[in-house]
Amino acid sequence: MEKIGVYVLPVKQLGEFLLDFYQTNFGIEESFAKVIVSEYADPLIAVLKDDLTMVIEHPYVDKMYRNTFYHFYSSKLKPYKRDSLRISFFSVAIDEKKFWQKEYVDYLQEKDYYYGFLVLRPTLPKIIGRNAINPKAFKDHKFRCCAARIPATVNAVKFVSEAFPHSSQDGQVITCAETTIWSLLEYFGNRYAEYKPLLPSDIHQILRKFSFKRQMPSDGLTAEQIAYTVREVGFGAMLYSKAKHQELFYGALSAFIESGIPVVGVIKGTNLAHAVNIIGAAIDDRKAIVNVEKPPFENDVDDHLIIDYNKVARKYVFIDDNHPPYRLADLDKPCTHYKHADWQACQLTNIIVPLYHRIYLDPIRVEISLNMTT
């Protein structure tokens, strides 16, 4: 049995570590290793706090990657490794000599110094795998978002991270749609006893009844297929269209986010389609909203100014598998973090909402009912 290597390093040395790791363990050229690091690791390093400490473990058996390995990668002509690399993040320096001492572990756990983990899978070059990183680990975390308590171990010691699950797509077994479904159900499965997380093969199994062609390599999913999967695992799925609901669309999305319900967003452009999770919103200055002169969304009721908060323009928190987690963007510019002009022109066209099955009234019906009675 291969011995597990454990390395403790500051986060700013991650790029240097990975550059050596991929050359040593994969036998690839330095030029290709630099491409992997610059395109996939560096964007994440850039948005993490500079003072974090990493505990790196290899080899690591990751449940999500192993699932895709045995259902797809193990049968490919090109050999793929079975094991991954896991990076755990702490907000303080780690003393390796004390790590298994109860008093030191209690100190780390009680003070919430553990900020989650990141799995790097051997699917070169798309290496970013399953991760659950606390928003506090990022330089910009001035937002409120859905988060679940996700358990993990670090060097055989149990910890828990408050985070929303994230992963990048590998482009073969999981595209943006499967990744988005996995992320959503991983959140609900860790947060509520009524639901359970799904692995990629579980998602493909559910969609087998809906699909009329092979599922791997994956060509992505439609909004209807995403809604079908969400419904099949116990949710009362709702599908909203911006074209149909127009001015009520953003308000409904805001209402769900304010209620603590993450939604799947479908983004489309010229020859482009993408799926993301929208899980929260930026923290705004509510005093400034109240003091604004003649807001366009005001109503006067018995001399009281009523402001519809769901119509206030603000940035929302996106879980996008092409970028690090918790990226902030406007709803009318959901792809602002993309460099290519075609992506930046994309628009949010649909949302799929995973409602608890006993929620019967949705915000659009409420809005329509209010307008009919006034």
User: Average pLDDT value?
Assistant: 88
What string gives the helices and strands in order? Answer: EHHEHEHEEEEEHHHEHHEEHEEEEHEH
Radius of gyration: 22 Å
> How far apart lie the N and C ends?
72 Å
Q: Are there runs of 5+ residues with pLDDT below 50, and where?
A: none
**In percent, how helical is the residue content?**
25-40%
Strand content: 25-35%
Protein structure class: alpha+beta
DSSP summary, beta strand count: 16
Question: Could you walk me through the main structural features you see in this protein, from its secondary elements to its overall organization?
Answer:
The chain is an alpha+beta fold. The chain folds into 2 domains: 5-163, no CATH class; 191-373, Cathepsin B, Chain A. The protein contains 12 helices and 16 strands. It has helices spanning 14-26, 30-47, 63-71, 102-110, 176-191, 200-207, 223-232, 242-245, 249-258, 286-291, 341-344, 363-373, and strands spanning 5-10, 53-60, 84-90, 114-120, 128-133, 143-145, 148-154, 157-163, 236-241, 263-269, 272-282, 298-301, 304-307, 316-319, 327-329, 347-355. The strands form 4 sheets. Strands 6, 9, 10, 11, 14, 15 and 16 form a 7-stranded antiparallel sheet that branches. A hairpin with a 2-residue loop joins strand 10 (263-269) and strand 11. Helix 1 (14-26) packs antiparallel against helix 2 (30-47). The radius of gyration is 22 Å and the shape is globular. The model has no long low-confidence stretch (mean pLDDT 88).
